[in-house]
């Protein structure tokens, strides 16, 4: 292995080549998705729920296609029904009810898979994964006072970490984070991403959060959430390695599937829900993020 310290600094052309030939397509698709997500977050309510329901349904389809196996149509139908039933509970902030529906639906969907225990486990896991994409942002956005601020903070942390990890890793290089699972990710990218996500999230929270939000706790929370975001990315890479595929699908130019785009988001959003639920004193878990 070449020591990064012995590698000459890249020229401007070399730096651009490190960013990858697919950068324009990635950027265009990313900006479009960010704009739609921001618009949905601003509107909130039913349309925000619809946006994440569609995303969750597509991820459910991608996951179950990865698992393959028997009774695909039945697994998709049961998983989709689970999302449909859980959605109104999440919209109204009924955390326990939404989680209970997801767990029950995952178990039923798992038993609908083939006789293989592995197929059952992976099929059930797909319902929980897709369910987290729907329920987590919906539960956070449900709060009238804190919901929009929580979602904007989450977007800032995830997007800041994801984008800056990409650029930091490509431009700085250095030791690989987990070569066997994701050869393209580096420690430098992970560190740059975590710091960037925390800082950007704190800046957004200062403007969007209600009065009383404290900077240092928000910075720490954002830093941990950004690390969790990176772990979600690695988890999805491990799942794809398990099923020997490069992309979850080919829905998005430059990104592959929707699951490839939301892997870090679902991890960070689930983490935010867990923290908010543990720290909130009332029904709205988003308030716990800013205490």
Can you characterise this structure?
- The chain has 10 helices and 2 strands.
- β1 and β2 (182-186) form a beta hairpin.
- It has one domain (24-290).
- It is an all-alpha fold and 291 residues long.
- It is globular and about 55 Å long.
- α4 (72-91) runs antiparallel to α5 and α6 (117-141) crosses α10.
- A two-stranded antiparallel sheet has the order 1-2.
Essential attributes:
single chain; mainly alpha; two-stranded antiparallel sheet; disordered N terminus
SSE blueprint and pairings:
Layout: H1 12-19, H2 23-43, H3 45-67, H4 72-91, H5 95-112, H6 117-141, H7 147-172, E1 176-178, E2 182-186, H8 187-208, H9 215-242, H10 258-279
Antiparallel strand pairs: 1-2
Helix pairs in contact: 2-3, 3-4, 3-6, 4-5, 4-6, 5-6, 6-7, 6-10, 7-8, 7-9, 7-10, 8-9, 9-10
Q: Strand-and-helix sequence, N→C?
A: HHHHHHHEEHHH
Nearest-integer average pLDDT: 89
The main β sheet shows up as: 2 strands, antiparallel
Computed CA radius of gyration, to the nearest angstrom: 19 Å
Structural class: mainly alpha
The termini sit apart by 46 Å
Helix proportion: over 70%
Report the sheet-strand fraction. under 5%
Précis, in short:
Helix content is 73%, strand content 3%. The chain is mainly alpha-helical. The longest helix has 28 residues.
């Amino acid at each position: 292995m070449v020591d990064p310290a012995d590698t000459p600094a890249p020229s401007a052309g070399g730096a651009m080549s490190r960013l990858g030939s697919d950068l324009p397509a990635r950027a265009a698709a990313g900006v479009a998705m960010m704009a739609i997500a921001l618009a949905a977050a601003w509107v909130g309510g039913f349309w925000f729920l619809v946006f994440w329901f569609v995303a969750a349904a597509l991820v459910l389809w991608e996951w179950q296609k990865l698992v393959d196996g028997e009774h695909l149509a039945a697994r998709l139908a049961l998983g989709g029904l689970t999302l449909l039933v859980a959605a109104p509970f999440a919209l109204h902030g009924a955390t326990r009810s939404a989680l209970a529906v997801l767990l029950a639906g995952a178990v039923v969907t798992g038993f609908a898979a083939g006789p293989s225990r592995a197929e059952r486990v992976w099929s059930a896991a797909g319902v929980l994964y897709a369910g987290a994409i729907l329920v987590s942002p919906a539960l956070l956005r449900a709060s009238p006072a804190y919901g929009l601020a929580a979602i904007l903070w989450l977007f800032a942390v995830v997007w800041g970490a994801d984008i800056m990890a990409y650029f930091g890793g490509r431009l700085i290089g250095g030791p690989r984070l987990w070569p066997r699972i994701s050869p393209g990710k580096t420690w430098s990218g992970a560190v740059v991403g975590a710091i960037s996500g925390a800082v950007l999230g704190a800046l957004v929270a200062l403007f969007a959060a209600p009065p009383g939000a404290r900077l240092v706790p928000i910075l720490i929370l954002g830093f941990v959430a950004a690390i969790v975001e990176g772990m979600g990315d690695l988890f999805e890479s491990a799942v794809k390695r398990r099923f020997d595929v490069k992309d979850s699908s080919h829905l998005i130019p430059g990104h592959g599937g929707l699951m490839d785009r939301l892997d870090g988001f679902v991890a960070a959003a689930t983490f935010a829900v867990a923290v908010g639920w543990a720290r909130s004193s009332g029904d709205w878990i988003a308030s716990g993020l800013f205490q």
